Amino acid sequence: MAMVSSTLTRVKAYALPLILFTGAMFFQLIVIPQSFPRSHYDVLGVRMYASVEEVEEAYEKLSSKWKSDTDSSNSFDFVKVRYAYELLTNPIWKRNYDIFEIEEQPHVIEEAKQRFAGKRFSDVQLPLLDDASVQGEDNFNAITAEDFQLILQSDKPSMVLIYSSGSVCCTQYDGTWKRIVSLLDGIANAAAIELREVQLAAYLADKRPTGRSFFRNGLPSVVAFPSGCKTVGCSIRFEGQLSVDAVTDWFATIVLRLPRILYYSKESLAQKFMAKISPHKVKVIFFSKTGERATPFIRLAALKYWDHASFAFLLWREEDSSFWWNAFEVESAPSIVFLKDPGVKPVVHHGPVNNSQFTDLMEQNKNQELPQLRAETSNELGCDARGYSRAGADTLSWYCVVLAGRLSPELNSMRATMRRVQEIISHDNEDSSVPATVASKRKRLTFTWLNGETQKKYCFFYLQSETSYETCGPRRDISDVPRLFIVRYTRNLTEENEPVRRKPKTMWDALNDQEYDRASQLVARYNGSNEIPQIIEWVSSIIRDGDSRDLPFFKTKTPELVPEDMDPIISRGVGSVLSKSTGLKHKIYGFVRGLHDRLGDPRIGPVLLLGALISFGSTWLRRSREKSPPSQSNQSNQSNEPTQPKSKEEIRKLRRRRERNEERPSSITDVEPKNAYQAPLSDSDSN
């Protein structure tokens, strides 16, 4: 039992050195051989970075040996030798392998192993590797280091492709890269760098712990520089499978941080998209045949025009073609549908579009036929007393016709009527003398509609009557009554040109200096029928009276329009496009990748072994001192000294005993008094 206890104590004492030694052996015997397999130079039996002539000479020797050994049937060894020979005799492939550890067509070895298993080496079909030089010239339009510096100085984000002109793997991505460049046109800089720019390629490559450059996923490799990034330290490397859809989606999401546009089915489009979109927005629906995700310029447009439009994607199916024709008059895909006001015929564009074409389409169709009056559009429409007319700051008077009401079928019907009124007035003869037509041509007349439920304060301000609750505020009854009114805005140039007042001296001056609207307002409410000619005549009469009569100018303060609900995908902001889980996955992946790279550091094994030796030596020295017997002089000293207490309890008792002895007063007999003497003794008691 004592022997077992002694063994356990010894193992426990040397546990740390054993762990370090085991780790060192594991790294040296398992991890390092896997991280640094035999090179192709080792396969041929030549020195590292040997010349092409030395490689050819070594291959000739091995080949003659294989030919003389007619009984050999192991073809896999010959495949490895032949692969090394073809790789190291091609100048471009040899350069890529020597500098960046890039192997050309590495799948060939495994395919040959399965294909020629059990056959003689003479049955192996040569050559093993395809030469990319016979497949065509370099079409990537590579740039130089000077061009790369100019790209980084730009404010736009950039995407860089690193490739090799002699690589078959790179050549087959020629068309893919051209398609990616076309999709990024006008959004980001795109450039290709050939490996002959060795210093630039090494700067953009991954780095091993030893400092050697390599490309983790081989070639071609894609690196992105976000806007404002000027060094490789802030660059982002694409890790997935190279395809147009994958690369553009990664660039738009990770680099540009643009919102994604979701796909909907025929059943979910109405319920999950159209019913949840704000009524003022134009609905833009894309029909796709391939199911590819939205391109970067479409996603950028979704961010740019978020206040005007919402976007959705649909996968085109031939069996649903009749349904989409009846719904939107869509014949085929790809196509784009713009849905504006309720009851308005959709605008359909068939065929693919590029960045500039889609921007033109959005500019033409970003607004509804009858725009909604909101906080974001009041200045643009010229329906804000704090702003100016659509005609510019020089216009002194202008008009805004507003249709107010709660969202309802009655409002939709009246909106259709007002669209027709707007169309007749705006498309009337240019020589027409109708006041409404003249004002519309000069951009002094605007037609718009107002959500009376959301903008209740604004609505009550202009419709002050007993029946205004039928139009403004929350719904109180089944009936909804849309109402029409016109506002005449007039600016007072004399008051605008007055000098700015100093600090007010009295309370009355402070009240006069309150912020009022820049323009005076006069409101006229329409009480007629919904007949289009009557509405046009009413608008013209208001404009005729307003332009011909000298109406009084007075100050007022209009209630501000309430910002309406924004699209949820944009309301989170651009910075939160990536969810927390997605960002965490990227961080975990980066940590695991960095740890994997560190595990291949050849210095870890020797460091662990050195630590094991130091720990073993210190442990042995400490245990030796504890077991060594004391010397004779020490024994004699120890015999004269009192026994030292070992336990804490004994030390505590000894300390208490010493304290009591120090506090005890000295006895009267301990010290002999001065002039003291011993009295003589007598034999008699009487004396």
Automatic annotation (TrEMBL):
Question: Which Pfam families does this one have?
Answer: DnaJ
Point out the coiled-coil segments of this chain.
none
Name under which the protein is recorded: Uncharacterized protein
Source organism: Punica granatum (Pomegranate)
Domain of life, per lineage: Eukaryota
